[in-house]
Write a structure and sequence with these properties.
Layout: E1 2-3, H1 9-19, H2 24-29, H3 37-51, E2 52-56, E3 62-67, H4 76-90, H5 95-108, E4 114-122, H6 131-146, E5 149-154, H7 159-165, E6 169-174, E7 182-187
Parallel strand pairs: 4-5
Antiparallel strand pairs: 1-2, 2-3, 3-4, 5-7, 6-7
C-alpha cells in the first residue's frame, strides 16, 4: 500500500470515479449527473489529504480515502471548499437533501475516536481479482496501528458480504430520509488481526 501524494490526485480521482459511477449514494450526491463524479472525488481527495489519509494499492489499480474525524476543523478554506462543492457538484437545489443525509450519518457514527473508511474502490476491470481485498486488509492493519476502530457506510448490497468477511459488523441501516438504504458497518481494532 502506497500513501498517496498530491501528484497522485488524478489517478485516485480516476479510480474512484470509475468504481463509483453506478453507486446510488454517490449518484444521490451528484444528482445523477455522472460528469460531476470526478469533481466530487477531487473534493474527497483534497479532504482526505488534509483530514485523513489517501492510499493506493501497490499496483495502482485501487484507492482508498480515510478520514480522521477529530481532524475536522471549520476554516475559511474549508467553508470555501464546501461552497464550491455545493455550487459545482451538488447543486444549490439539492444542498438541503445532501446535508440531511450527512446529518443522518453523523448521528449514527460511533462516539469514540475512529477512522472513517470513506471510499475504497477498484478499477472495474480489476474487480474480483483480490486487489480491493488486499487494500482493505492493509487499511485494517493501518487502523490497528493507529488503535482506532473503522467505520464505513455502503449503499451497495453486494458489498455486505465483502465487509462481513473482512471482520466488519453491520450495526445499522438508514431506511428513512433517503431514496435508498444506507448500511453502516464498523470493525473493532481488537478484531483486526
Amino acid at each position: 500500500m502506497l500513501r498517496a501524494s498530491h501528484e497522485h490526485k488524478q489517478l485516485v480521482v480516476d479510480i474512484l470515479s470509475k468504481s463509483f459511477e453506478k453507486n446510488r449514494s454517490v449518484n444521490f450526491v451528484v444528482g445523477g449527473k455522472a460528469a460531476r463524479i470526478p469533481k466530487l472525488m477531487g473534493y474527497c481527495f483534497d479532504l482526505g489529504m488534509e483530514q485523513g489519509a489517501v492510499f493506493l494499492s501497490d499496483n495502482s489499480n485501487a484507492a482508498t480515502i480515510l478520514l480522521f474525524p477529530e481532524k475536522k476543523k471549520t476554516t475559511i478554506k474549508s467553508v470555501m471548499r464546501d461552497l464550491k462543492l455545493a455550487l459545482n457538484v451538488i447543486g444549490i437545489e439539492r444542498v438541503l437533501s445532501v446535508m440531511k443525509r450527512e446529518s443522518l450519518l453523523k448521528e449514527r457514527q460511533p462516539k469514540n475516536k475512529f477512522i472513517h473508511l470513506w471510499y475504497i474502490g477498484v478499477y472495474p476491470e480489476e474487480s474480483g481479482k483480490g486487489v480491493g481485498s488486499n487494500l482493505l486488509r492493509e487499511v485494517i492493519e493501518f487502523c490497528f496501528e493507529k488503535e482506532k476502530d473503522i467505520y464505513l457506510e455502503t449503499s451497495t448490497e453486494r458489498n455486505i458480504n465483502f465487509y462481513i468477511q473482512n471482520g466488519f459488523d453491520h450495526y445499522d441501516t438508514i431506511k428513512k430520509g433517503l431514496p435508498y438504504d444506507l448500511m453502516l458497518f464498523k470493525r473493532k481494532i481488537l478484531a483486526a488481526l
